């Protein structure tokens, strides 16, 4: 069975899933949001190797796809306080994200090329 989203065709359910979580950072962002709301700077600190531009773009795509919600909280003076959290639709991905993370832990045991480094 094929699927179409925003004019783009997806040949199978796997490719459709990857439309939502594919790429280097989307799953990483979502796994950090699974436990609750985070501010932009909190996400930046949790994922220090992502550039600000890339993080902003990925957050925007996740929001457009309906997986996260962006809430701007008014403040007396700039900068604005912006918080991100998962939508109910986004939360349906939590079991998958946990399994991906657990698989990564197993990969460390199996693949000799993987080095664990100190932070």
How many strand units? 5
- Globally, the shape reads globular
Give the mean pLDDT.
94
- Rg, Å, rounded: 16 Å
Task: Note poorly predicted spans.
Answer: none
Q: End-to-end distance, in Å?
A: 45 Å
Largest sheet: 3 strands, antiparallel
Strand-residue proportion:
15-25%
Q: Report helical residue fraction.
A: 40-55%
Widest sheet, order of strands: 3-5-4
SS-derived structural category: alpha+beta
How many separate helices?
Answer: 6
What string gives the helices and strands in order?
Answer: EEHHEHHEEHH
Describe the protein.
With 119 residues, the protein is an alpha+beta fold. The chain has six helices and five strands. Strand 4 and strand 5 (81-86) form a beta hairpin. It is globular and about 50 Å long. The mean pLDDT is 94.
List keywords for this structure.
single chain, 119 residues, alpha+beta, three-stranded antiparallel beta sheet, two-stranded antiparallel sheet, 5 strands, 49% helix, 17% strand, globular
């Amino acid at each position: 069975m094929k699927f179409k989203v925003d004019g783009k065709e997806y040949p199978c359910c796997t490719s459709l899933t990857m439309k939502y979580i594919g790429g280097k950072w989307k799953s990483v962002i979502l796994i950090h949001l699974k436990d609750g709301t985070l501010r932009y700077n909190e996400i930046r600190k949790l994922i220090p190797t992502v550039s600000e531009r890339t993080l902003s773009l990925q957050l925007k795509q996740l929001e457009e796809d309906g997986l996260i919600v962006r809430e701007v909280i008014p403040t007396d003076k700039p900068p604005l306080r912006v918080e991100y959290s998962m939508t109910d639709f986004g939360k349906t991905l939590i079991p998958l994200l946990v399994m991906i993370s657990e698989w990564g832990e197993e990969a460390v045991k199996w693949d000799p090329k993987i080095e664990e480094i100190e932070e």
